[in-house]
Design a protein that fits this description.
Layout (H helix, E strand, L loop, with lengths): L1 H11 L1 H19 L3 H23 L3 H44 L4 E9 L5 E6 L12 E3 L4 E8 L4 E8 L4 E5 L5 E6 L5 E4 L12 E4 L11 E10 L5 E7 L8 E5 L5 H13 L2
Antiparallel strand pairs: 1-2, 1-12, 2-5, 3-4, 3-12, 4-5, 6-7, 6-9, 7-8, 8-11, 9-10, 10-11
Length: 279
């Protein structure tokens, strides 16, 4: 049975076998004959074969190109990630350098912190920082950056604190025009504007003036930059309408300092007793 099948296979391929045998015989005769015409044909055949081979070798290997492209893409992604990391590290170093400079120049003790949560779209906005009572943070301590005032601590645990920022309707502080020494009250209107209120219509306040914390405040040290006058006009016949642009960019804020400053208890108690006696 096996012999029969083998015979059938040979019979079905006989034309190809005969052609292959004839080609081999032709090549043997071609390369063994030293006739001038045969030599010419032989040289022509070798030259043509070499030309075809060189042409084929010039055609790029598609598989190798795909592998190379894949490697280049992976390398490009890796380099892009490294560049992004280096940029972020550089920016962080710049921010930390500013904070260290503030810490060295501050007469009061400070504790550095990172922001771990932030709210900027409410009427009572806050930030959460990664330090608390275990880091000597106390309620009502001011929070600042190297640019200026951020707010004050209103709640804390052992390792975290919540900071009431300038964009919070519950935070009000006495401020002063650094140039003209005009006093006012800073508060947030809940619609995106910081306002300096209780400023008489005749007061000397100009666009671009720097606004700082006042010595009249018992919650913040005097002289901390708060913002600059963005717009000033008349609210009514008695008072000015003054819009303040804060010096701190709350949208990009990432690191802060808690200032180890607490309200004077004796002063606070005296003022409280006096106010209660007038009621």
């Amino acid at each position: 049975m096996l012999k029969k099948n083998f015979g059938e296979i040979i019979f079905s391929l006989k034309e190809y076998l005969i052609l292959t045998l004839l080609v081999i015989i032709s090549l043997i005769l071609l390369f063994s004959n030293d006739n001038s015409q045969i030599r010419f044909l032989r040289a022509f055949a070798i030259g043509a074969f070499g030309t075809v081979q060189s042409g084929l070798s010039a055609i790029p290997n598609i598989f190798e190109i795909e592998q190379e492209n894949k490697y280049l893409r992976e390398t490009n992604i890796k380099l892009s990630n490294e560049i992004s990391y280096l940029k972020e590290t550089k920016l962080e170093n710049i921010r930390l350098s500013k904070l260290i400079g503030l810490k060295e120049n501050s007469n009061l003790g400070v504790v550095s912190a990172k922001i771990v949560n932030k709210s900027l779209i409410q009427t009572r906005n806050t930030i959460t920082i990664d330090i608390g009572s275990n880091d000597s943070v106390r309620l009502n301590m001011p929070v600042i950056t190297d640019d200026g005032l951020v707010g004050k601590v209103v709640a804390l645990s052992g390792n975290y604190s919540i900071v009431q920022i300038l964009y919070n309707k519950d935070l009000k502080l006495t401020v002063k025009d650094q140039r003209s020494r005009v006093d006012g009250i800073l508060n947030y209107d809940g619609t995106g504007n910081l306002l300096m209120t209780n400023v008489p219509k005749s007061a000397d306040v100009k666009t671009g003036d720097m606004i700082i914390t006042s010595e009249y405040s018992n919650n913040f040290p005097a002289g901390i930059p708060v913002g600059s006058v963005l717009e000033e006009g008349n609210l009514d016949n008695l008072f000015k309408k003054i819009v303040i642009q804060p010096v701190v960019n709350f949208k990009t804020l990432e690191e802060v300092f808690v200032l180890k400053y607490l309200p004077d208890k004796e002063r606070a108690e005296l003022e409280k007793i006096f106010l209660n006696s007038k009621q």
